[in-house]
């Protein structure tokens, strides 16, 4: 059984591990930082959340499954903050205690692009980040981070993480949407063209208020079929726009995302 420890709250300037004594670090966490990054040609600030963990520990992807805790960012202290975009590298499929989760072992580097609220003025990345890290215990951690001054050139670590972000397909899987007692069930048939990417699937709704069950998959006529339940806070059937569904096909070396599905009879 996975156990959960109390919340650890750490406050840090640009580098966390150097400012926190080893005996004050929560179990499993080596360091957490916002990398300085650089300023893009259009004035946006590129940075990244860099998390280093003890060997064997893991943290989670944006939609980790029933047992995971995705990172959450509070940017209230940031300066000149405009639109924030997170670029999630392809996650690992992790099996533990009979549960499938999606996340990252040992380290995570999550690229972040921040547009300036006032064009021409510098962005000052500061965030309070909540994340979960797990081994055979799970530790919810909160860190207060600030990126240092932007570097003059792109950071190759961030560029490498961007290269691992799943590609976006222009195809739309065929899908059926049916009512169930407490919400809606979506069954989708993934295009044959994407099968080379892998055979693990994540299904998401664009609203974080919609809970999505762990998907079930099956082979049908050479194509991968996937089904999941979508449940709103009402606990009742609700109008579900197929354009709000995102499917990600994940393999050990590749991944592809499908944005929206096409309703079929």
From TrEMBL:
Lineage: superkingdom: Bacteria
The protein, known as: DsbC/DsbD-like thiol-disulfide interchange protein
Residues annotated as domain Thiol:disulfide interchange protein DsbD N-terminal: 41-145
InterPro entries named among the record's database cross-references: DsbDN
Signal peptide: 1-17
Lineage of source species: Bacteria, Pseudomonadati, Pseudomonadota, Alphaproteobacteria, Rhodobacterales
Keywords for this protein: Signal
